[in-house]
Amino acid sequence: MKKTITSTLCCILLLLAVISCTNNKKDNNTQNESSASAETGSADKASRIIEYTNLVVDMANSHNSYLKNILSNTEQIEKGLRNPKNLFAFTGVITPHLIQAGLRNMNGVTIEKPVDELGKENQAYFKTQITQYNTIFEKLQNNYKQLDDYLKAQDYKDDNGTKGYLMIDTIRNTVQKLYTGKLVLMKKVNEVADAAEIVVLKDSPLKDYIIAMKTDMKTFRNFIDLLADNGSNYAKIKDKAQAGYRELENSQTKNAALNIENAKKANKDGQYKRFYESFHDLLLRTKKTLRDAGTSGKLTKTDIDDLDRDYDGLIRNYNYFNQ
C-alpha cells in the first residue's frame, strides 16, 4: 500500500500564468507578428490543458490524507473488535475530515467538464475516469459511515464483530481501487500535461524557479522513499541517507538564493520565498529525524508519515506559486 500512495503523491503538475509574457512580444514585421500570434494561441491552449489537469491533481492530493486516515482507523477498529471489552478499545478513532479541492478554478474550469483544448478523445477519457473514480469514492464514504454507525450502536456486541470485520475488508478493498484509479488517472495526466508544459515554459520568465522547485520536490520524494523502504534497518542506509540529506540541503541553499527579479515582476517572489523557507524548516525537522534514527537504528511509521506531510506542504506551496 505504501508504494501505491507514494506513486500517487509524485504526480505534480503546473498551473501557469505566463500567457501575458507571450502577448507582450511585439514586432513591426508582419511575419513576426503572425508567428507571435500563433505562439500565443499554442500557449493559451497549453495553459487551458494544464489548468484542467491541475484540477485532477488537486483532487487526488486532497484525498490522500483522507484515505490514509481511513486506513489508519480500520487498523485501530480491527484491534478494538478483537478486544471489545477494553473501555478504550475505540478511543481515538476520529471520523476523517475531507477537504474538498480540485472541483473548479478561478477561471471557471471544472473537473467534471474537461476543456475542449484536450481534444475529443482525451475529453471522453477524463470524463469517464473521473466519473468512475467519484462513484467509487462515494461508495467508500458510505461504507465508512456504515462502519461508524456500527460502532456507535455497539452492534459488535451482537455478532462478535463479524459484520465489522467484513465492512473493514470492504473499505480496504475500496481504498485500493481508488489508489489504482488514481494511478491510471495520473499516468494520463502526466502524458497530457508534460506536452503542454513544454509549450508553456518555452519562453517563460518563471522557468528557472519552476524547474528548481520541481527538481527539489522530486529529490525529496526519492529521499523519503529511500527511508520508507529501509526504515526497519536504518544502519544499512545511514551513509546514503546522510548524503541525500546533504544534497537536499545544498540545493535548498542554492535555489533559495536565485535572483528573484523576474518573480517580483510577476508578483511571485513571496510565494517562491515561502517555498524555500518551508523547505528549510522541513530539512531541520528531517535532520532531527535522522539523528534519532541513528540512535534507535530505525525509522518509525510516524517518522515516514511526518515526512509525507512535509512533502504535501511543498506541493501546496508549489501550487500557490503557480496559481
List the helices and strands and how they pair.
Elements: H1 2-9, H2 19-23, H3 30-82, H4 120-152, H5 156-159, H6 162-201, H7 207-229, H8 234-256, H9 261-265, H10 269-296, H11 301-321
Helix pairs in contact: 1-6, 3-6, 4-6, 7-8, 7-11, 8-10, 10-11
Q: How would you sum up this structure, described in words?
A:
Residues 1-25 form the signal peptide. This is DUF3829 domain-containing protein. Keywords: Signal. The protein has helices spanning 2-9, 19-23, 30-82, 120-152, 156-159, 162-201, 207-229, 234-256, 261-265, 269-296, 301-321. Helix 8 runs antiparallel to helix 10 and helix 10 runs antiparallel to helix 11 (301-321). The protein is built from eleven helices and no strands. The chain is flat, with a radius of gyration of 23 Å. It is 75% helix and 0% strand. The longest helix is centred in the first third of the chain and has 53 residues, at 30-82. It is mostly helical and 323 residues long. The chain starts with a helix and ends with a helix.
